[in-house]
Amino acid sequence: MEVQQIEEEIELALKHISRLENRLKNIQKNCNHQFKYHPNFNKCKKCHKVEVFYY
Ligand SMILES: [Zn+2]
Fold first, then answer.
1. From the record, what ranges are coiled-coil (predicted)?
2. Of 5, 20, 40, 47, which is the most buried if we count CB atoms within 10 A?
3. Total structural domains in the chain?
4. Nearest to 51, CA basis, from 26, 30, 29, 40
5. 19 CA distance to ligand 1 centroid (A)?
6. Ligand 1 geometric centre to CA of 35 (Å)
7. Structure pTM?
8. pLDDT tens track for 8-44
């Protein structure tokens, strides 16, 4: 595989990840969270959003 082809594939993969992250953020933004309690954080059962406790 040539370097340029590898770079193009990396670029495509990064764009793909970026789209997925945006979709996930959107889902988490619109989620009616149901948090499950953990010792140091809450995690939503539905969208997996994590809320860390800061003291
Ligand atoms: Zn949620």
1. 3-30
2. 47
3. 1
4. 40
5. 19
6. 7
7. 0.72
8. 999 999 999 999 999 999 999 999 999 998 889 999 9
Among the listed residues 29, 54, 33, the one whose alpha carbon sits nearest the alpha carbon of residue 43: 33
Q: Is 31 exposed, middle or buried (0-12, 13-18, 19+ CB in 10 A)?
A: middle
Distance 41 CA to ligand 1 centre (A): 14
Q: Tell me the two tokens of residue 9.
A: 């594939």
Which residues have CB less than 5 Å away from ligand 1 (the ion)? 31, 33, 44, 46-47, 49
User: What are the structure tokens assigned to 21, written together?
Assistant: 């992250």
- 38: domain range? 3-52
Give the C-alpha separation, 19 to 43, whole Å.
Answer: 23
The CA distance from 40 to 49, in Å, is 14
